[in-house]
Amino acid sequence: MNCFSTKAVIQMVVRQYNSSKKNSKPLRNYLKQNSRFLDSLRVHVKAGTGGFGFPKYGGEGGKGGDVSFVATDGMTLKDFLNKYPRKKIQAETGGNSHSRRILGQIGQDKKVNVPIGITVYDDKNVLIGDLNEKDSELIVAKGGEGGKNSNGYCGVKGESRSVKLELKLIADIGLVGFPNAGKSTFLKAISNAKPKIASYPFTTIRPNIGILSYEDLRQISMADLPGLIEGAHCNIGMGHRFLRHVERTKLLLLIVDINGFQLNPKHKFRSCLETIILLNKELELYKEELLDKPAMLLINKMDTEGAKEKYLEIKDQLENLDEALLSFPKEIRPLKSIKFDKIIQISAKNQPDDIKQVKQIVRNLLDINEELSNDVECHPLEDLKEQLRERGPVLL
């Protein structure tokens, strides 16, 4: 084959490739968006080494700088990564002692801004600390001591290790449910969030935060977590990545489809009651303490055909969930049932009045549980007036 025919073949292959590329289905936008959400990151931190001492005059070297994280409002892990793309953070070394400066200069600390809601673990997955409040600070690597008599005037190396930053969303309400339960539709209807909505499972593949606004300017945050599936607690599907985000919510809001759920033809169909039991089971297997949180159940899509009849069939079982569990096989039966403060029937798509009702109920539940958790001792008004009453001198 001569060089001209070889060149022709190459050109033909290139044309075929370009043609197939044009005709191929483009990458869906929501898959591109998935890469934008970052809730876990591993970085290397290195504190400063202490400066050398000066034995001749007994001079001490300066301490190495510490590396610390500072919780910053309005920041994301993506912002952190943009600032530190190499994921390496280092503090300054302490200054050496010398004849003109007996005490070496202390190395400057390295303070790094991180999002609020960060939990920091070391390379052995041991908890170092949490940063849940604005401007709270956590030292993740301590600087080494400066050289002095006790260490032979040699500066001590600062801590050097890998740490994992794990973001747990801080929201008042955690919205949990299987795919296609209507979580995104509900969140859009009740808040200012604009999640992707479609008729196929897994339209939500990253958490969405919505803000519920009230006429008196009260605001409540709600996190829509991507759909769980059976086995999410042991890393099946996407739900395991986001279960951690329900840990810091004050109220769990479970939403289920009255018509049940089937992920695909290969999976078993689950009725409405079975989906509730399975959600209960997944939460229990991930972290049993989640079942002690205040919880509310929304039975969605009540505007569909036969929905009322289906609800009446399971109404008594929902109100007596402990007894209902006994009729389910062991593989899906949780050891402990979740206690619902309210069970509401709604149509998130077509009934705005249902949304208004839920909006008011979640506010009341949050307020009631806040009062119970604070356990503030109330004093009668007359007792308070008596304490504030002016008193004159007492004649003995």
From TrEMBL:
Alphabetic keyword roster: GTP-binding, Nucleotide-binding
CDD domains for the chain: Obg
UniProt GO MF annotations: GTP binding; GTPase activity
GO cellular component assignments: mitochondrion
Superkingdom as given in the UniProt entry: Eukaryota
Record Gene3D superfamilies: GTP1/OBG domain, P-loop containing nucleotide triphosphate hydrolases
Residues in OBG-type G domain copies: 171-366
GO biological process, one term: ribosome biogenesis
PROSITE patterns: G_OBG (PS51710), OBG (PS51883)
InterPro entries: G_OBG, GTP-bd, GTP1_OBG_dom, GTP1_OBG_dom_sf, OBG_GTPase, P-loop_NTPase
Ranges of residues in domain Obg: 35-170
Record's protein name: GTP-binding protein 10 homolog
UniProt organism field: Sipha flava
